[in-house]
Design brief:
Layout (H helix, E strand, L loop, with lengths): L1 E6 L9 E7 L6 E2 L4 E6 L4 E5 L4 E6 L6 E3 L3 E7 L9 H13 L21 E3 L5 E3 L2 H9 L18 H8 L34 H16 L2 E9 L1 H18 L6 H14 L5 E4 L2 E4 L5 E3 L1 E3 L2 E3 L2 E2 L7 H16 L13 E4 L19 E15 L2 E15 L5 H16 L9
Parallel strand pairs: 14-18, 18-19
Antiparallel strand pairs: 1-8, 2-4, 2-7, 3-6, 4-5, 6-8, 9-10, 11-20, 12-13, 14-17, 15-16, 19-20
Helix pairs in contact: 6-7, 6-8
């Protein structure tokens, strides 16, 4: 028998830490190789991590909601045969010695033992001399709110203080640690009154990540916004006539998304400043289009990326976009699927919206929304006609793009969509 370690994977080139969102197995469960083991969230992706080993899950080292560095041991699996990565006896003895040396004297006096060496965050020396293991994210959050983590009762494994403990303390729902014997964490008090009129719902890991990303984007880029009305009557009629036969021929649903995506790609090649990013040395123009598609999922929003979308024919674009959307909703995206986007397209019209002001997906220069297609009376050649009208909204980084360029880009999209014909499809 051998014990194999499960480590926090690196979900993307720039990702240095990840948060355990949900364990899909419990201690004592048998786990098959490649069976989903844990859901991990970073600021880039929300993904199910499969087990690289088969055996019994003997230890969960990182609790749900806890953030640890890439490479940290998050669990241990007892495999049927000795694993080549299992430490040798001398190494085990050394690890045991390290673990013993990190147990504070108070652990022998009835206090909760300190976390073992499987935790990766370095111990931080608190004011009373007691060592407390905190993840970088928890340390940062505590510092931002002026909270001393050593005064809190940790709800994490081994009494470890988690992000939720810090947030609860900020909201008044966490109490300080008792000076003597440890006390089991009590249920948090209602946020307001008796809890019947108001309720505190703790944030999910993904919602926290989205919130941080949105705040950072608004703080980074001066956002400007513009809107265009587009008559998409010809496109609506074509799709209605062709969607049945398209699905029977290609096995994929024909939505409005690939039509807009292909036209956006063409316009971005004409206006590369919309497909750029800001740096201290200058503006980086991207002569390729990695098109991000915002997808709503139960926990929030994620943006998978269609790589080199400007080089794809229409049918291939349909398949790629449908695949990304489906895998995003099923939590099957890979780290590479959410990396390298140069421009983001968001279909807020699916929710019934007719106008919206999206926040830029950093470090991109702009983001476009397509709104609901509604029938409206419009004036054509001094006559009133009923047409299918769709609004498009663009948020752009005013450091890079001025109103005139944004308007020219939107006019190019409008012209292509309104003059659309079946021959416009680039197969």
């Amino acid at each position: 028998m051998g014990v194999s370690q499960i480590k926090m994977p690196q979900l993307g080139e720039s990702v240095t830490e990840g948060t355990v969102d949900k364990w899909l197995k419990h201690e004592g469960d048998f786990v098959k190789r490649d069976e989903p083991l844990v859901e991990v969230v970073t600021d880039k992706v929300n993904a199910e991590i499969p087990s690289p080993f088969e055996g019994k899950l003997v230890k969960i080292a990182v609790s749900e909601g806890e953030t640890v560095r890439v490479g940290a041991v998050i669990a241990q699996i007892e495999t049927g045969a000795a694993d080549t990565t299992t430490p040798s006896a001398p190494a085990k003895e050394k690890e045991a010695a390290v673990a013993d040396s990190e147990v504070p004297p108070e652990a022998t006096a009835g206090r909760a033992p300190a976390p073992t060496a499987t935790s990766v965050s370095p111990p931080a020396e608190t004011s009373d001399g007691e060592r407390t293991r905190l993840s970088p994210a928890v340390r940062k959050l505590a510092a931002e709110h002026g909270i001393d983590p050593s005064t809190l009762r940790g709800s994490g494994m081994g009494g470890r203080v988690t992000r939720d403990d810090i947030l609860a303390a900020v909201g008044g729902g966490q109490t300080t640690a008792a000076p003597e014997a440890p006390v089991k964490p009590s249920a948090p008090a209602p946020a307001r009154g008796d809890g019947k009129r108001e309720e505190l719902v703790k944030l999910s890991v993904m919602r926290k990540s989205i919130a941080e990303h949105m705040v950072r984007s608004l703080a980074t880029s001066p956002h400007a916004w513009t809107l265009q009305e587009v008559d998409v009557t010809a496109l609506v009629r074509y799709r209605e006539a062709e969607k049945g036969s398209f699905k029977s021929r290609h096995g994929a649903a024909l939505t409005y998304l690939p039509f807009v995506a292909q036209i956006v790609c063409e316009a971005l090649r004409e206006f590369p400043w919309l497909n750029s990013s800001w740096t201290d040395d200058g503006v980086v123009l991207k002569h390729y289009v990695n098109l991000g598609i915002a997808v709503a999922i139960p926990d929030g929003l994620i943006v998978p990326v269609a790589k080199d979308a400007d080089k794809l024919g229409f049918t291939d674009l349909v398949r790629v976009l449908n695949d990304l959307v489906e895998r995003a909703r099923n939590k099957q995206l890979k780290p590479d699927d959410v990396q390298g986007g140069t421009f983001t397209l968001n279909n807020t019209g699916a929710t019934g919206s007719v106008a919206s002001q999206p926040i830029i997906n950093q470090p991109q220069a702009a983001i476009l929304t397509t709104e609901s297609i509604v029938k409206r009376p419009v004036v054509i050649d001094d006559a009133i006609a009923i047409r299918h009208i769709m609004n498009m909204c663009l948020s752009f980084d005013h450091r890079i793009i001025d109103g005139m360029m944004a308007g020219q880009f939107m006019n190019a999209l409008k012209k292509r969509l309104e003059e659309w014909t079946p021959g416009s499809i680039r197969l």
